[in-house]
Amino acid sequence: MAKKKKRKGSGFFSNLLLILCILIFCVAAWKLWGYYRHYHGGKKEYEQLRQYVEENADPDEQKTKKEKDKCPVTVDFEALAKVNPDVKAWIYIKGTGINYPIVQAADNTTYLHRTFEGKDSFIGAIFLDAGCEPDFSSENSIVYGHNLKNGQMFGMLKKHYDTEYNPDADYKKYQKIWIITPEEEIEYKVFAAREIDVNEDSDVYTIAFASEEDYASYLKNSIEKALYSLKTKPDSEEDILTLSTCTSSSEAGRFIVQATQIQRTAK
Question: Which segments cross the bilayer (predicted)?
């Protein structure tokens, strides 16, 4: 019986295919390593920054009903400013893992992919809108942070405040938001949360309003479109805070949590 002749070039194509598979594997492995490096590096960096923050004894256990809430953390802004002079504040939401410095640049792109220490990373930093007053005296102070899968930055907002994403979200437990600046301790209370489309709901990012009536109308609209009803009702004489993070539903999707100022205390 005659032996079948091997096709010329079959070995070449087999080797080429093998090389391509190896290259694809190497590229995928490199990307996975890059993601891990950014996640791990960012987590380590922000954990180290917390050495400049001291959590005080649980203020809720010590105060009487008539007393105002006491700020739960003390921040060393002098030390933070040596690391990054763009630091403007610190945000703290007890029990959520949201415990980060807030920076502000001349635009809203600088810290999208740059950490507090200035390292290039997709985790970025928590930053205040460039158009807002750095002391959080704007009618609507807007703070941005990435929605990371491992819960870093604003990755826990949807878990704790989005009842459509997480039906068990215990949003009432996390209503108090603290913003600490070098001069003041500001307490906010959540009054609304929802998912928006930045193209259709761009008015959400209004910082200053033409009149008190416009501001009151904005607040009314925020309450009406909220995922749930809360006892906290914002007053048009008080400033508000808007936390904004991206969502996986669409490129234009954002999840926002809005809170009204309930006290502002000078240090």
Answer: 12-33
